Amino acid sequence: MSLRFLTAVAARSACRVVAAALALGLAACTGGTFVAEGGIVGTGSAPITVTGAISSFGNNTLVVNGKALATTGAVVRVNQQPGSVADLRVGMVVAVAGTVAAGGAVTATTIDYRADIRGVVDGIDRGSKTFTVLGQTVRTDASAIFDGGTLDTLVSQYVEVSGFRTLPGEVLASLVQISTSAPAGTPAEVTGIVSALDVNARTLRIGTLLVDFVALPGAQLPPQLANGAVVDVRGMTNASGTLVAQTLALVGTTLPGADGTEVEVEGAITEFASAASFKVNGQPVDAHAAAIGNGTAALLGNGVRVDVAGRLAGGIVAATRVDIESVPTIQVDGLVSAVTTAASTLAIGAQTFAVNAATQFDDQSVAAVHDFNLAAVHVGDHVVVTATSAPALAATRVVRVDLAAPPPSQPDTTFEGVISEFNSVADFKVGGRSVNAASAQFSGGTSADLANGRRVTALGKLSGATLLASQVTIEAPTTSPPPPTTLSVEGTITGFVSIASFSVAGQPVNASGASVSGGSATTLANGARVDVAGTLVAGILNAQTVRIETAPTAPTLEVEGTITAFASLANFTLAGQVVDATHASVSNGSAQDIAVGRVAKVTGALVNGVLVATNVQLEDQEDAEVEGVINGYVSVASFVVAGRQVDASAAQFSNGTAANLANGVKVHVRGPLAGAILKATRVEFD
Predict the structure, then answer these.
(1) Which residues contact 550 (CB under 8 A, 6 or more apart)?
(2) What is the pLDDT of residues 380-435, one digit of tens each?
(3) In the chain, at which end, N or C, are there fewer CB atoms within 10 A of the end residue's CB?
(4) What is the DSSP letter of 241?
């Protein structure tokens, strides 16, 4: 949730967070509650509160909800610790208190960021694009930012999630920061709605997470603790998955401030009764007289993500404007061909994108410019633009990457060779290249068989110099003398100097003595995708074979949505984009299944405004696939994985039997959906 003003056990900390706000006359802090005081602050300035996700940074400014906020002198707190603007990231949901001058300029006085969840992921549901951590279901969409990995690589990874609470036990993510393990001394943390409070056993639940607060003295418990209250709990999880609380604090969901205080709130609608009565992140809103942007009042409802602007009146936001946030449907990867700051546009080839104050800007190139915005984009930059397509192309996110970076739709990379420097399943090397296999599926053995000297093939996505493996094949051990260290690397060429000196997926290569297929040695260049095999000597791959897979292509385009018009396989429209799928592969169905009304994701190259598809993935099939740790086990016909109810009574089992099903066991489940229940046809034990 985005409104985080603490009371009770965290009262003193909360008072420090809003110390500067007191000077603005927003509130006085007494006994852990906020008491409205008043009025206009200084000559020609008034208080303002803004909550929402950070979209970009500028010169001593940050942008939240489309509003530029001057940050010079602001007090910043990050996860309840003193911080700075440099610690903040695009996508973080922050609560900002400040002043607005008569001319409209806003100066931030306090900026408070606190993660909704910090813990280890125990399951993912690829079909619904959700994952589970600490008993919470985290929902993602095309607006969610994944930093350090992807949804497919999340199992067993440590994540910090920032977003908007939509239901008890559910968060709509705006930013997911991923690492292989928690930083030293970092507790697990979750913010959510209390249920099943047992004051005698001193336990409660947040979502499905059981919280044990027996170690907390009674004096540290907020007297307002009750079912339905929103709390923040920090502590350590034990072997049974219970969170043993070290701190427990109430989180206020309504904005502090006197009547008339200007406010802007971003989040997901809950408790919708009518346009005159709903909540955004727990804050009551009356929008009966508001102007509605990007739609009409008829589109408002539970789960809809909105930006609300208005003023406080008796604890309710009297909204003057409600903007419905659009979910992006198009992603284009390519080189910037034009930038027009005056018109707020940038172009990739013939595609021109409008940007606005709500567009997220993120620099993931080696330059890593923190204050990245449209003014810092240059012709020739390699960018990935996510956008909405109706009524015109409007960028929701612009990410700058290195010139040689692969497109988001690039196929997996493969490392093949002998394991060395084995520290754990999440930290070892294959042929001298770093691998993290914490979320991988194994064949030919299990993760317990990983050891120095074992020969494996690892398949996955590159994150920096590390392969986040989704599959690991373990070769049978041999008693014969070990062969020379061999390595097979697949990826995009970077750092090309000559045929004797270039890199593939970060691996130095000498191909001066290699045979080349799929082209000639003269076509080797930065951006070409190749599969290289050879022997590893002193860290350099002396290639024996080089197979050229593709030449540099037109900008990659990925469109997801509903087919609205269909003339033929060579001419249909998906989410406003014309598609030619004549030569495309079709997954989750066949070419005959492509028709009006079907939901699909299409990937290909943009040629003269037409998406020439290489793949059409039909997404509205009834099959589902989940991976994670079993909980709530009742029987083979009733258990939960990654928040999804599973019936495996008719399933085939691999690497185990139905008798091995139990809470805490990690499995991979596939099968059709029957309502909300996954009727498993196959269960694989990890």
Answers:
(1) 528, 529
(2) 998 989 888 766 788 999 999 887 666 665 567 788 888 888 998 888 998 778 88
(3) C
(4) S
Residue with tokens 């009262």: 11
The reported pLDDT for the residue numbered 648 is 95
CA 647 vs CA 122, 125, 132, 157, 677: distances in Å: 19, 15, 19, 26, 7
- Taking Cα atoms as reference points, which of 495, 545, 552, 554 lies closest to residue 527? 552
Beta strand ranges found along 518-596 (DSSP E): 529-537, 540-550, 556-568, 571-574, 577-580, 585-587
CA–CA separation, 399 and 348 (whole Å): 13
Q: How far apart, in whole angstroms, are the C-alpha atoms of residue 425 and residue 448?
A: 8
d(CA 65, CA 358): 6
Question: Residue for token digits 């489940």?
Answer: 669
Cβ contacts of 541 within 8 Å, gap of 6 or more: 431, 487, 489, 504, 507, 508, 509, 510, 532, 534, 535
Give 495-515 as a DSSP string.
EEEETTEEEETTEEEE-TT-E
Question: Virtual CA dihedral for 140, 144, 145, 146, nearest 10 degrees?
Answer: 10
- Segment 7-36, tens digit of pLDDT: 332 332 333 333 333 222 333 332 222 222
Q: Using CA atoms, how far apart are residues 309 and 65, in angstroms rounded to an integer?
A: 9
Nearest to 288 by CA among 303, 277, 302, 299: 277
Confidence at residue 48, expressed as pLDDT on a 0 to 100 scale: 92
d(CA 515, CA 521): 9
Distances (CA, A) of 161 to 120, 155, 388, 581: 11, 14, 24, 37
pTM of the model: 0.70
Which amino acid is located at 243 in the chain?
A: L
Task: Provide the terminal-to-terminal Cα distance of the chain, rounded to the nearest Å.
Answer: 34
Write down all domains in the chain, each with its CATH number in brackets: 5-113 (2.40.50.320), 262-324 (2.40.50), 330-401 (2.40.50.320), 413-550 (no CATH), 556-618 (2.40.50.320), 623-685 (2.40.50)
C-alpha 602/C-alpha 613 separation (Å) is 6
Q: Which residues of the chain have pLDDT under 50?
A: 1-43, 552
Question: What is the DSSP annotation of 625-678?
Answer: EEEEEEEEEEETTEEEETTEEEE-TT-EEESS-GGG--TT-EEEEEEEEETTEE
Angstrom CA distances, 316 to 229, 254, 302, 312, 343, stand at 18, 8, 18, 6, 37
CB-CB contact of 198 with 204 (8 Å): yes
Q: Which two tokens stand for residue 548?
A: 């050229």
| Dist. CA 254–CA 263, nearest whole Å | 11
Residue among 369, 380, 372, 378 at smallest CA distance from 397: 372
> In 669-679, which positions are buried (b, 16+ CB within 10 angstroms) versus exposed (e)?
bbbeeeeebbb
Of 273, 277, 270, 396, the C-alpha closest to 325 is 396
Helices and strands counted in the chain (H then E): 2, 58
3-state helix, strand, coil in the chain (%, to 5): 5, 55, 40
Two tokens, residue 178: 């991923």
What is the C-alpha to C-alpha distance for residues 466 and 428, in angstroms, rounded to an integer?
10
Cβ within 8 Å of residue 212, ≥6 positions away? 202, 203, 242, 243, 244, 245
